[in-house]
Design goal:
heterodimer; A: mainly beta; six-stranded mixed sheet; four-stranded antiparallel sheet; B: mainly beta; seven-stranded mixed sheet; 11 strands; 0% helix; globular
Chain lengths: 112, 118
């Protein structure tokens, strides 16, 4: 069965520091992968997506993610975190019928 | 593109009451999805429509839940005889399906309806 695992429930980084959020997926074929961000009480905003081609994908707000088939991973990175990046981040894979299968989420806190 | 709109944003009701939520997708999107998100968890799939046809329902969708998309535009999600465990954020998302049938179009989410059961 398709699944997504985000090992880190909560991460705290200092403003200006680099960030990496981990995501591992389980999927038989080539996955379609996404990262979404959610601010408190809000819906989900798409940061970036991977369908095929270049394994390093660029997204909005300076985020990027790298697809590594050998490790079944799709980790999200940002070289320098801003206080406004504090939010919940979700990794997701497309399942049968186009529905999204989400990980548990990683809550990001940013220290001044 | 006015985005996906959900109403109401918040709903507080007593246990046993019926509630109905509405979702207006992006106008040219033919696919509409409902998800439920509980505190500290990622969204979980409930059901989806392609145009007016409901194509899949999750096991999470008990017989107290019903969803419709009568004209292939807006959708409603109704919960009958609400229970404490129904307290959650209900999210709606829409997307287009390519003619190739590839499921590679991103889903755009509304801000959700937060349901609280007293």
């Amino acid at each position: 069965a398709q699944s997504v695992t985000q090992p880190d429930i909560h991460i705290t980084v200092s403003e200006g520091a680099s960030l990496e959020l981990r995501c591992n997926y389980s999927y038989g074929a080539t996955p379609y992968l996404f990262w979404y961000v959610q601010s408190p009480g809000q819906g989900l905003q798409l940061l970036l997506k991977y369908f095929s081609g270049d394994t390093l994908v660029q997204g909005i707000k300076g985020f990027e993610a790298e697809f590594k088939r050998s490790q079944s991973s799709f980790n999200l990175r940002k070289p320098s975190v801003h206080w406004s990046d504090a939010a919940e981040y979700f990794c997701a894979v497309i399942g049968q019928g186009g529905k999204l299968i989400f990980g548990q989420g990683t809550e990001l806190s940013v220290k001044p | 593109d006015t985005g996906v709109s959900q109403n109401p944003r918040h709903k507080i009701t007593k246990r046993g009451q019926n509630v109905t939520f509405r979702c207006d997708p992006i106008s040219e999107h033919n696919r509409l999805y409902w998800y439920r998100q509980t505190l500290g968890q990622g969204p979980e799939f409930l059901t989806y429509f392609q145009n007016e046809a409901q194509l899949e329902k999750s096991r999470l969708l008990s017989d107290r839940f019903s969803a419709e998309r009568p004209k292939g535009s807006f959708s409603t999600l109704e919960i009958q005889r609400t229970e404490q465990g129904d307290s959650a954020m209900y999210l709606c998302a829409s997307s287009t399906e390519r003619r190739t049938g590839k499921m590679d179009q991103p889903q755009h989410f509304g801000d959700g309806t937060r349901l609280s059961i007293l």
